[in-house]
Amino acid sequence: MKNILARRILFCLLFVSIFVVxxxxxxxxxxxxxxxxxxxxxxxxxxxxEGAALVPxxxxxxxKQTLTVEILDGTEKSKIxxxxxxxxQLTVGEIFxxxxxxxxxDGTDRWSVADPYRLPVLFGLALIFVVLLxxxxxxxxxxxxxxxxxxxxxxxxxxxxxxxxxxxPILIALGISALIIILGSYLTHGISRTTxxxxxxxxxxxxxxxxxxxxxxxxAHLSGFTSETNVYLNFDTNGRINMLGLLFGGIxxxxxxxxxxxxxxxxxxxxxxxxxxxxxxxxxxxxxxxIGREHIGALVNTLAIAYVGTSLPLMLLxxxxxxxxxxxxxxxxxxxxxxxxxxGSIGLVLAVPITTLIxxxxxxxxxxxxxxxxxGNGQ
Length: 379
Description:
Layout: H1 2-19, E1 26-30, E2 35-54, E3 61-71, E4 80-85, E5 95-103, E6 109-116, H2 119-164, H3 169-189, H4 193-219, H5 228-236, H6 243-276, H7 281-310, H8 312-319, H9 325-330, H10 332-369
Antiparallel strand pairs: 1-2, 2-3, 2-5, 3-4, 5-6
């Protein structure tokens, strides 16, 4: 699970560093609403609190402050502006991203706080992670990091562009998943029969799980529109992207991190059992499955809890709903996450017997030729 967590953390950090460059401001014109929207960094010069007030139409209070700031980059660098802020409260000297919206029709300017400047914290955590990875993970840890970077390159330069171009997310997701598995396996663990066994086990598992997922999302009549992001993306691309296929692709890619852990673990367990004694293939399979069952119990629980953790705000929101539990669970936004959890868990469970079976056949031949083999009938 450390590898899974590391992959997720560094993925987020690299995503931010690629798409949110601190010295870059961007402007875009939207013909439909006739506005320009520009982002830039700014520093707070003065911050005057105006106290808390109710948000109109609600019982929620919001703290307001008047900010005077200096813009640090972009076309309006060094400009001083003053505006009211009811988002996150800032202090004097703090750096943040400022949003400047200008109406093309009447030239009206609106300034607001887009986001605090978090990149130093993110890069600091990334540095700590890399140092710890090198100190305690050694060369294997660095190879895992290189594998992660390779996977990110594949995702950003192959997966995302092809999906955005309107190609089938289903075929692309399966192909990219296989490519990431091959690259990650050999780069992290080296070229060996053990690694190949785990790699083949993962690919077979992805194919089987993919076929099941494809059927389930159609039987359940999912649409893929489970958030505002999906809706905006659909309008922005004029419906070019198959949102249901995108949902399928997300489930497949999300499955990979956990598959690495369990498939490599099973293949190594099989190898060690062959090295440890003169066991038949059936004995090795049975003993390795005993290890796999313990692994399944831990990872399935972890996977489900991880999904629940990311969905806590949604669960709290539905707690306030007057609808029944059955209706809430049946709703697409909940049903989608349940299917995501269950299909990921099914993939996990399948990976254990599949990888163990493949490894028990592939590795017995190696140890038989090296003199460490079964005295039985090879079953």
